Amino acid sequence: MKLGIIGAENSHTAAIAKTLNVDKKIKGFTVEYVWGETDEFAKNAAKAGQIPNIVKNPREMLGKIDAVLVDHRHPKYHLPAILPFLKKGIPVFVDKPFCYRASEGKKALEIAKENKTPITSFSVIPHQKSFRAFMGKISKAGKILSAASYGPCDMHSPYGGIFFYGIHQVEAVLKAFGYEVKSVLLSKNGQNAAGQLFYSNGLIVTMNFIKEACPGFHISAIGEKGPVSQALVFDKEIYLNGIKTFTTMFRTGKEPETYEHILKPVQVLEALEKSIKSGNIEEVEK
Questions:
Q1: How far apart, in whole angstroms, are the C-alpha atoms of residue 11 and residue 191?
Q2: What is the CA radius of gyration of the chain?
Q3: pTM for this model (two decimals)
């Protein structure tokens, strides 16, 4: 299958293309086209990933590719980029976060459904062996009473603030502890922040967003049978399992994530963003 990638300022574009074109880790898939936010971004990604064609407009890929990936640093650019492809029934993978506003995301998913276009979006952290190891641990911990996560995040990132790196912790927490988050509260202290997720069953999960010097991601919980903890160390090939997941969708048409699971991280991030400004508990939209 011939793939195209929209967006090249993110390192993920070159990494995905290298995995498929250079290392040839997954048979039957090649990245044939790329569009970059600047000529330099496009040329650098094309060189690193041996992508043969650079386009001046993403729409030039229509009719030439079998599936498309969208990979911008700021999520506000994701949905406008994918709409022409959704309407043509071309399968789409959107790098995390899926979008910047859940209301717009719902409309995009409706278009995908109307056109029977396979679509997915996710963070790579839940695809790491270390995360699967944590899931094994909590399955034996009994009822989870409290939980926490830690990781890097710049609350004032030019690429969407908390959305840019906060998505990693939010998605990991939702995958680990469930999607029934009713409200959130974000508290700041200097450059760092703590976001609390309040679940409908009474569970509270605290996410620690650390701007500088944080060495990686970590997740822990206390269950009725004791505590569990896991450093979320990346696999040697960070993106491989994620690439396998979306290329399988491209081949089969079977979506690995439900629409609810695609949208919920965005809804939680929006509520956290509101809480940053208000200083109050904010409801998570449904």
A1: 25
A2: 19
A3: 0.95
